[in-house]
Write a structure and sequence with these properties.
Length: about 375
């Protein structure tokens, strides 16, 4: 426990037989549960985790399973309905088996029945922690790329500062340019800039880091089962958290590479997919948060900016086609293009300013 609060760490693992033991052995003592989600590994990851479960002598408190069955009255009707909705969500998770459902084991092994990618694995681990009322749930990859000595700093704001989500930031470290491969660093920077706009958290960076911690309150606010399954999971999480108006904080961490890990991510293939995810997520956030939940001029100005930009594109292509056909273009057409383009810049810029101002209170 950390300052009297239960802490768990979700460890998504796929073919991590050489490093999963390092992650388990170096886990800080204040961690109450290590939830290893074995994502259909083809190596000996499962067997190694089971051996650690057998050998583990760590004494832990039994966790309180969230009881969804209660006698209905005037005061708990809303909670009963919420519990029924959670039960209905269970079918959307990847099918999985909790190998040791003994609540007195510190190490919990969950086997996915099919490969769910990193996001799918984390969502299964999140579900287990939410169902057991874990106050703070961190994520540490099974490839030992996250320094366990930094876990206290990651979890502390959740425990003591009433923060909903904490993420690490490696890009500010002096050694980042040396340790992080150039392709990954450039790709990370591009995606981070796009995620600022898409998520509404304008002061964050290093959006691709997986070293995070989340509060029980935040896990209850978002649709865990609907988390993006692949490497865009951290970006999708930020969008979901912003829609739920969750507070966020960044903690400086060190980049860890060359510990024997094998990267499973192709940055060239990943960027286009995450870019589409961010574009769709942006509009989902704007419509849900600033139209349906609480109408705000942000929605209006983004909509006007997009419409004006579409109008400017229409005039632009009209001018280009007339040029190649050697057909005269009227002054009104040029003026229409200029007016539409300036209007798009003005409306979009104003929407971004409103967006920054409104979300600044969520970033600590």
């Amino acid at each position: 426990m950390l300052d009297g609060k239960i802490v768990a760490v979700v460890v998504p693992a796929y073919n991590e037989e050489s490093l999963i033991g390092v992650v388990i052995k170096t886990m800080p003592d204040f961690v109450d549960r290590i939830v290893v989600v074995n994502d259909c590994s083809k190596d000996k990851t499962e067997e190694i985790v089971k051996e650690y479960i057998k050998k583990d002598t760590y004494e832990v408190l039994e966790l309180p399973w969230k009881n969804r069955e209660m006698e209905e009255n005037f005061f708990n009707k809303a909670e009963i309905i919420a519990n029924k909705l959670l039960d209905e969500e269970d079918k959307y998770y990847i099918k999985h088996e909790i190998v040791n459902d003994n609540l007195k084991d510190r190490i919990v092994l969950i086997n996915n029945e099919m490969n769910a990618k990193v996001g799918g694995g984390i969502s299964v681990g999140y579900k287990w922690c939410r169902d057991h009322n874990v106050f703070c749930t961190a994520v540490m990859a099974g490839d030992a790329q996250m320094d366990p000595d930094e876990l206290y700093d990651i979890c502390y704001p959740i425990i003591n500062e009433d923060i909903d989500y904490v993420k690490g930031n490696r890009l500010g470290h002096k050694a980042a340019r040396i340790l992080i491969p150039t392709t990954r660093r450039v790709g990370n920077s591009i995606l981070s800039a796009m995620t600022k706009i898409s998520s509404g958290y304008w002061r964050i960076s290093d959006t691709q880091t997986g070293y995070t911690a989340i509060s029980l309150r935040a896990l209850n606010r978002i649709d865990i089962y609907n988390i993006y399954k692949n490497y865009g999971m951290p970006n999708d999480m930020l969008i979901k958290l912003n829609i739920a108006k969750c507070t966020i904080k960044e903690i400086a961490i060190k980049p860890v590479y060359n510990v024997g890990e094998q990267s499973k991510m192709n940055i060239i293939k990943v960027i286009p997919k995450i870019s589409l995810l961010l574009y769709l997520g942006f509009w989902k956030r704007i419509i849900k948060k600033y139209c349906f939940k609480d109408f705000h001029p942000i929605f209006f100005f983004y909509l006007m900016g997009t419409g004006a930009f579409g109008g400017s594109l229409y005039f632009f292509f009209y001018i280009v086609t007339r040029f190649f056909r050697s057909t005269k273009v009227t002054d009104g057409t040029y003026q229409g293009f200029v007016v539409m383009f300036i209007a798009s810049l003005f409306c979009t810029g104003l929407a971004m300013w409103f967006d920054m101002y409104d979300n600044d209170r969520l970033q600590k």
